[in-house]
Amino acid sequence: MSKQTAKDRRKEPARGSLGQLLWLAGALAVAALPHLPYIALWVPIVVSAVAGWRLLAAGYRWPLPSAWVRVPLALSGFAGVLLTYRQVTGVDAGSALLLVMATMKLLETRGQRDRAVVVFLCFFLLFSAFLREQALWAPAYLFIGVLVLITALLQVARFDGTVKPATALVTSGRLLLQALPLAVLFFLLFPRIPGPFWSLPQRGSQAETGLSESMSPGDITSLALSDAIAFRVRFDGDAPRGSDLYWRGPVLSEFDGREWEMRALSFFPKLTEQLRDEGRSAGYEITLEPHGRRWLLALETPIEWDAKAAVISAPYQLVRFRPIDKRTTYRARSLLNGTTPGIMTERGRTADLKLPTGTNPRSLALAQTMRADSADDAGYLNAVLRMFREQPFFYSLTPAVLGAQSVDDFLFNTREGFCGHYASAFVVLARAAGIPARVVTGYQGGELNPLANHWVVRQADAHAWAEVWLKDRWLRYDPTAAVAPERIEWGMDGALSRGSIAGAEEFRGRFLSSGLSMSWDALNAAWNRWVLGFGPDSQSDLMRWTGVTTPSLRHLVVGLAIGMIALLGLAGAWHYRQLQGSREPLLRAYRQLCQRTARIWRARHPAEGPQEYACAVATVRPDLATELNALFGAYARLRYDGAQDWQRVSAFSRAVRRFRPTRRPPVAHD
Fold this sequence. Notes:
Layout: H1 2-11, H2 18-32, H3 42-60, H4 67-85, H5 91-105, H6 112-132, H7 137-156, H8 165-189, E1 214-215, E2 229-235, E3 246-255, E4 260-262, E5 281-288, E6 298-299, E7 301-305, E8 310-312, E9 318-320, E10 328-335, E11 339-341, H9 346-353, H10 361-372, H11 377-390, E12 394-395, H12 406-414, E13 416-417, H13 419-432, E14 437-444, E15 447-449, E16 454-458, E17 462-470, E18 473-477, H14 479-483, H15 485-498, H16 515-532, H17 536-545, H18 553-580, H19 585-598, H20 610-620, H21 625-640, H22 646-658
Parallel strand pairs: 12-13
Antiparallel strand pairs: 1-4, 2-5, 2-16, 3-4, 3-6, 3-14, 5-10, 7-10, 8-9, 11-18, 14-17, 15-16, 17-18
C-alpha cells in the first residue's frame, strides 16, 4: 500500500497556488540579488531555469519530477559549485551552493512545509550577504529583504491561497516592529568577541591611485583619480594645517633605474624613545578601510599608537604582520615637524646612496655640476627645489610616456608629471650628490566633513615625497610643493576644483563635494563607528554609563537576562490585556465553540491548538469529526491566515451557534 501511495504521489500535479509560487520565486530573487556580482554566471542561469519551470508546472498542472530526477540534479549542482570554486565553503562558494540547493527545493514543494523550507533557506541566503558587504546600504536592503521574506512566509503557509500584498506586508511590518526592542537589547548586551561577530576578511582592493610596495613613474601614463575613501580621521582638538597632513605609508629605498621598491623591513626596539617631546604633535583616531596589505597609515612620524599587533619599522612605517582585511580603527599620536631624528647604520647609508650603474647618466652629471656650485648639502637640495620651481616643469595628471632612462627623460625632455615623477627625480639627484635619500609614499591632505567633524582621505590623495638624511636627522622634502604648491595647500580636490593642475579637465567633477555627499559620508561614518564598531569596549562603556564601575561578562549576561524578562513580561501583559478586554467577534465565537465542545468530552488545554483539539475530540466522537474539523479549521484560517473579513467571521459565528452536539453519540437502531 505504501508503494502505491508513493507512486500516486509522484504522479500528482504540482501543488500550491500560482500566487504562492510567485511569492516563493520573488523571495528567492530578493535573497539572491546581493550575491549576483560575486557568483559564477551559470548559477543564476540555473536558478532562473528551474524557477521558471516550476511556475509553468503550477500553471499547467504538470506533475513534479521524481527523486530519480531531483537527486541527479542536486548532485550536479553540488559538483558544479565544487568544480567552479574548488571548494564548497567560504562566502562565495557557500552562497552559490545555498542558492542552488534552495532552487532545487522548488522541485519538491508539494505542501506548506516544503514551501516554508524554501523561505527559510532564503533567510540564510539573505543574511550571508552581510558577511560580504557591511556598507550602509546593506542593512537597509537586509530590512527590506526580511520584510519581503516574512511576507512570503505568511503567503505560502496559508490554506486558501494568498491575500492582498498590502495586507500581508502590514502584518509583516507589525511583526518586525514587535521584534525590534528585543533585537536592540541583544545588539547592546549580547556578549561578543572583539570586532563584529559576523565579520569575515574582506578582499583588499588596491585602487589605481592606491599605494603599493613599488612605484614606477615611467610606466604610468595617466593618473586615474578615484574618490574611493582610503580612511577617515578624527583629530583631538583643532586639525593641523593642510601642509602638515602627510600620511606615511610604504617607504621605498631600492631603485633599479626605473622602479622603486620597499627594502626588507628592519626594526630598532628603542626607536621611539628618542622621538618624545620633539616639538609639535597631534593626536587622532583613524578608521582605515581594508586594503589587503600590511601597512597602517599615520601622520608622518608616529610616536604612540594603540593598533593591535602593530610595530614601527626603521623608516618609521607603522606595519602589522597580518594584512588589513577588514575595517580597522585605532588611535595614534604623531610629530608634525617634517624632521625626525633617526638611526643611520653604515649598511643603511650604503643602501640609501645606491644607484644602478649605467642608468640616467645626464641626471647624474647634472647632480655633480649643481653640487659643485653649492656651499653645502642643504644648499644643493634647495637649488634642486629652485630648479623645479623656476624652470618650466609642470604638474600634470596626464604625463607623457617616459623612455628607458626615465629620470633623464623626465628632467630633460618631458618635464611634466605628478608627485611620483618629482619624488623619484629628487631622490636620484640627492643620491647622486652623496646624500642618503628615499621615497616615501602615502597620502597628503584630506577633506573636512563638517557634518561629522572628521576628515576624509581618498585614494586620489595618494602622494609621494622625499626624505633625505642631513645632520643626523631625516628631513622631508616635497618637490611637488615647489611645482604645484596648491596641491599641498588645498589638497587634490581643492586643486582640481580651482583648475590649477594641467590635465585636470577630464577629472574635474569626479569628487562629490556637495552637501548631499557629505551627508552620506557622515551617515556611513556613524554606521561604522556606532554599529559595526560596537564591540566589547563599547559594551563596557555602556555598562559604566549605567553605573557599573567595573563591567564584566557577568554584568552583561545579567543585564541581558533582566532586559529579556522585562520585555517579554511587557509583551505578555499587553497580549493578556488585549485578550481579556477584546470584544472581537472571532474570539468570542471561538470561546463559545470550545465551551460547547468541552461538554461532550473535556476542555481544551491552554497549549492545545485548534486543529489538535479537534482531532483529539474526533477520536472519541468520530460522528462529529467532519463538523469539528470544519469549524476548528475555519477558525485557524480566519485567525492565522490574515483574512478576518467580517462576512467570513459572521458566517463562522453563525455556524458555531448552530453547533449543538449531544453529550453521547447517537445509538444506532436496527
